[in-house]
Design brief:
The complex is a heterodimer of chains A (212) and B (722).
Chain A: E1 4-9, H1 16-25, E2 29-34, E3 46-49, H2 70-79, E4 83-87, H3 89-96, E5 103-105, E6 113-121, E7 137-144, E8 148-150, E9 157-162, E10 173-177, E11 183-186, H4 203-207
Parallel strand pairs in A: 1-2, 1-3, 3-4, 4-11
Antiparallel strand pairs in A: 5-8, 6-7, 6-9, 9-10, 10-11
Chain B: H1 6-9, H2 14-24, H3 30-39, H4 42-45, H5 50-53, E1 63-65, E2 72-75, E3 81-88, H6 90-95, H7 97-114, E4 117-128, H8 134-154, E5 158-165, E6 174-183, E7 199-204, H9 214-218, H10 238-254, E8 257-262, H11 267-279, E9 282-286, H12 298-303, E10 309-314, H13 319-328, E11 332-340, E12 344-349, E13 352-358, H14 359-363, H15 393-402, H16 410-413, E14 424-426, E15 433-436, E16 443-449, H17 452-457, H18 459-476, E17 480-489, H19 498-516, E18 520-526, E19 539-548, E20 565-569, H20 593-608, E21 612-617, H21 622-634, E22 638-642, H22 648-653, E23 660-664, H23 669-675, E24 682-688, E25 692-697, E26 700-705, H24 706-721
Helix pairs in contact in B: 7-8, 7-10, 8-10, 10-13, 15-24, 18-19, 18-20
Classes of the chains: A alpha/beta (212), B alpha+beta (722).
Chain lengths: 212, 722
């Protein structure tokens, strides 16, 4: 039986459809999880929080979404050891919800940046870079305005680092996991690097972490 | 109180004001007069341009919807239809660049949504004054920020566009936004209201005082006291626009809507009168039901240009379902009236009828004017003796690569999300963007182009050149041109030779479009782009869409492998009106449409046969810049020998000639030449290889290392903005 991935949708979520396509491209089943619902769809094996501008980025990026009714269910899923990945705004939501360490700040460029980036695997023991060893390099695009991770890089479980720390993240962090490794967030967009036609398939490596 | 009569304050002429009571059979109420002033503005009525636009080809086997709706729609095969349109937001951007540019994006996106389509790509064609001016740097950087803010937040990729800088745009910058959308299973939605008894639903944002008079005060007159006009600029809310996009997609797919229209210029007045006039029905609206942000007078409610609003006609039995969908997306949705028998647009306030008139008087019956067509004198050819020949051609080459008009536009496009949606196959920086059509093996290519300096000297030739450059850009990525949308940006058509230039540009565009068999399916006109001291160049921007039957067959401009053969297709260029000469005036050779179309056809056929390793349109900065761009993109140099007989700098930097630079594997050259029509000139220049671009012009050899080219090319724009 294929893995069922719940893909969250908040008002202002932009990458729901691309995330669904990427998940389906890995042979998994994608189902929509609506922000106002209190439970994840029946049969959910893993959760994906896609990018976008949930609630218009009002207050702070991810702040309102982190308190949406669906997030209680996401928290329970994570605490039970279920896999959760947050991409871009989804990463911001997971940090705001306290499911991941640190916070995302304004880019040090003081501008939105859309660029293909090289990422180095920093920890090859999480589920999110299967088959790659520490130091391996993958190519995935970023596109954000508040993508500089700030936190304690000594205690956080860093999964991916930028080779070029363009945005000014602490310790060049591009993605971090919780201590158990089942919850991961990253600013780069793996769902947009799942097709050779678009320039890279490295995103499939990261999203494969959703599939048990 | 002003002594100026109300109608003149509103922008109506005395003759127009006298015509209104004649048509109505009575004096208009004040709200009615305000509505006439907006609907009869150039921006809404095209009263100065309508007669000229009839010259465009608008039909073809692929055209599902031509001009006259919110956007054109084209059949691209595989059961897929694509909506496209370009529109200006020039005057608001000159007054308040961030909100002006942002709401320009919002407006064009709603035009696509109104067709029942899902937006999949945006492009922006921009013109600003020279970046040596602090004012132009401010306008440009804020407009880019506004475009980015809006486009990034709504999740539609900004995949391309163009920008140039010239001091003639110092006081009247141009911000043209193009949007492309894909029709859903519900098919095309149209604006025509139908079915007396059906409900009229206003949904989206609340109505406020922003943007009042935008279409008349701002967009249809010269800008002199722009500071006073800031309240006429609308305010953007991209978050609500995104919810509108998602909501309208759901509504269009569920078949809930009879008709759909966005609220743009002239707000509710324009939306309601056009829906009624197109459907041949009446509408009865209770203004007391319109959700307001603040207390507004009836006339203000009727003409507010508050953004992110749509108007729909809904069957009574579907009303509850429709409103529930809007509520799910946290959007206001209110039945504010109904479709009626007859043809009158009626508006009530506090129980009293404040407007009651035939909708067509507003939507269709604006007076139409023939613009004066005073030919401008013909220019004399550029005297090359006035341009000193550089001692160091390599330095001149590098300097040209760093000029803002030529330099890399990375500073702009990295501020735009050009990837969202995961369909962008060819990103900004090439000849045209290539976007996959979801659910299909096909892709579309998109470009915007305009040869405004050419248009200044010879508007007919410039009109042809603008269209042909767009077609070359598409051909160079391997896409066959299938449809166009146009945005005609001109100064005041009532003055000088502007009317003639407008007519000539349109004629030239029409000739080239007809030769290419590319119909215009939508468009926009922006006039009065001048101040007391300066007029813009004639700027007829062409947005063009091409089709690739196989998404994986697109061609890039990067040189590929050492040993590939470099060929030049097309004629010689000249320095008149070139970036290198940087002096106004000159005279240009006639644009030979059939030869240039034959050259485009050659490159297209070569692309279709899989012969091309790279292809690139030769435009600003001429052959030397085109070679450098291909070399930088590929990270590999080339040698190119060009026979001379002319000055070296003219050979290197001359523009025009309908040229394209292509590379092929050595074994394919003969096959390529076999595809060429005898009228097309094809020259073998040299080979790809090495880490420098080496041009041999007659006895002169000029060498520019690829890394030195890149340094100049990437430095240009950031340095000009620093």
């Amino acid at each position: 039986m294929s893995t069922t991935v719940a893909v969250l949708r908040f008002p202002g979520t932009l990458d729901h459809d691309s995330a669904v396509r990427a998940v389906e491209g890995l042979g998994a089943t994608a189902v929509e999880a609506w922000h106002a619902d209190a439970a994840l769809p029946a049969g959910t094996d893993a959760v994906l929080l896609p990018g976008g501008f949930s609630y218009g980025d009002h207050l702070r990026c991810g702040a309102i979404a982190s308190r949406a009714p669906i997030m209680g269910a996401v928290r329970r899923h994570a605490e039970a050891g279920g896999r959760v990945v947050g991409i871009c705004n989804g990463f911001q939501v997971l940090c705001e919800a306290g499911l991941l360490p640190g916070a995302l700040r304004r880019n040090s460029t003081l501008s939105f940046v859309c660029r293909q980036m090289e990422l180095e695997v920093a920890d090859d023991e999480t589920p999110w870079t299967p088959g790659l060893e520490t130091g391996a390099v993958i190519s995935i695009p970023i596109k954000n305005n508040e993508g500089a991770w700030y936190g304690d890089a000594g205690t956080a479980r860093v999964v991916l680092r930028y080779r070029d720390n363009l945005l000014g993240s602490t310790d060049a962090v591009a993605g971090v996991a919780n201590a158990a490794g089942n919850v991961m967030g990253l600013m780069p967009h793996p769902e947009e690097a799942c097709d050779a036609l678009l320039g890279s398939t490295d995103g499939q490596i990261v999203l494969a972490g959703l599939i048990a | 109180m002003s002594d100026v009569p109300l109608h003149r304050q509103l922008g109506l002429t005395d003759d127009e004001a006298a015509l209104i009571p004649e048509l109505l059979g009575r004096e208009p109420t004040d709200p009615e007069l305000v509505m006439f002033s907006l609907m009869w503005s150039e921006h809404c009525s095209y009263k100065h341009s309508k007669p000229l636009l009839r010259g465009f080809p608008t039909t073809g086997a692929r055209v599902l919807q031509g001009p006259g709706e919110n956007a054109g729609v084209v059949d691209v095969g595989d059961g897929i239809a694509v909506a496209l349109k370009i529109e200006s937001h020039n005057h608001p951007s000159a007054v308040e660049p961030f909100e002006g540019a942002a709401t320009g994006v919002g407006g064009i996106v709603r035009d696509i949504i109104a067709m029942g389509a899902r937006p999949i790509a945006l492009l922006d064609s921009l013109r600003f004054g020279e970046l040596t001016s602090a004012r132009s740097r401010h306008l440009f950087t804020r407009a880019v920020a506004g475009i980015g803010h809006y486009g990034n937040c709504i999740g539609v990729p900004t995949v391309g566009g163009e920008v140039s800088f010239d001091d003639r745009y110092e006081e009247s910058c141009l911000v043209n936004a193009m949007c492309v959308g894909i029709l859903g299973p519900g098919g095309i939605l149209r604006a025509a209201a139908q079915g007396p008894g059906n409900a009229l639903v206003l949904f989206g944002n609340k109505t406020g005082r922003d943007g009042i008079g935008g279409a008349s005060v701002l967009a249809s007159a010269e800008l002199d006291e722009a500071e006073d006009k800031r309240p006429s600029v609308q305010v953007s809310d991209p978050f609500t626009e995104r919810k509108l996009m998602d909501c309208c997609r759901e509504l269009a797919e569920s078949g809930t809507l009879v008709a759909l229209q966005d609220l743009g210029a002239a707000g509710l007045t324009s939306a309601a009168s056009e829906m009624a006039a197109k459907g041949g029905v009446g509408l009865d609206i209770d203004l007391d039901l319109v959700p307001l942000r603040e207390t507004l007078a009836p006339a203000e409610i009727l003409v507010s240009e508050s953004q992110e609003r749509m108007l729909a006609v809904v069957l009574p039995e579907k009303l509850e379902e429709m409103i529930a969908v809007c509520r799910r997306w946290d959007l206001d949705a209110t039945a504010i009236g109904s479709v009626t028998e007859g043809e009158n647009l009626v508006a009530r306030s506090g129980g009293a009828v404040v407007v009651d008139l035939p909708a067509r008087l507003l939507a269709d019956d604006a007076p139409v004017y023939e613009v004066p067509r005073v030919p401008a004198p013909t220019g004399t050819p550029l005297d090359l003796a006035t341009i000193p020949e550089p001692a160091d051609l390599a330095a001149a080459w590098a300097d040209l690569l760093a000029r803002p008009n030529i330099a890399s536009k990375r500073w702009i496009y990295e501020r735009y999300d050009h990837l969202v949606g995961a369909n962008t196959i060819r990103r900004p920086g090439g000849d045209a963007a290539v976007v996959r059509l979801p659910g299909s093996d096909r892709a579309i290519a998109l470009t915007t182009d305009c040869a405004e300096r050419h248009c200044e000297i010879d508007p007919r030739g410039g009109g042809r050149a603008s269209v042909l450059e767009a077609a070359r850009n598409l051909a160079c990525v391997g896409a066959r041109p299938v449809a166009a949308t146009d945005c005609l940006n001109f100064p005041n058509p009532e003055k000088g030779s502007t009317g003639w230039r407008l007519a000539e540009s349109i004629a030239g565009m029409a000739e080239a479009l007809t030769a290419l068999d590319v119909p215009v399916v939508s468009g926009n006109v922006s006039l009065y782009n001048e101040s007391a001291t300066r007029s813009i160049l004639p700027t007829p921007v062409v947005g063009m869409m091409g089709l690739l039957e196989r998404a994986d067959s697109s061609v890039g401009h990067a040189f590929a492998d050492a040993g590939d053969v470099v060929l030049l297709v097309g004629d010689d260029g000249v320095l008149d009106a070139s970036e290198y000469a940087a002096s106004p005036g000159g005279a240009l050779p006639d644009v030979d449409v059939s030869r240039e179309v034959a050259a485009i056809e050659l490159v297209l056929r070569a692309a279709e046969e899989g012969l091309l390793r790279s292809a690139h349109d030769v435009s600003g900065g001429g052959l030397a810049v085109a070679l450098a761009e291909c070399a930088m993109a590929g990270g590999i140099g080339a040698t190119a020998r060009v026979d001379s007989g002319r000055r070296d700098d003219e050979v290197m930097f001359g523009e025009g000639g309908g040229r394209m630079l292509v590379t092929l594997a050595a074994g394919d050259v003969e096959r390529f030449q076999g595809l060429a029509d005898p009228s097309v000139r094809v020259r073998r220049l040299g080979e790809v290889g090495g880490d420098a671009i080496v041009m041999r012009v007659g006895a002169t050899e000029v060498t520019l290392p690829v890394e030195r080219a890149r340094e100049a090319y990437e430095r240009g724009l950031p340095e000009a903005l620093a």
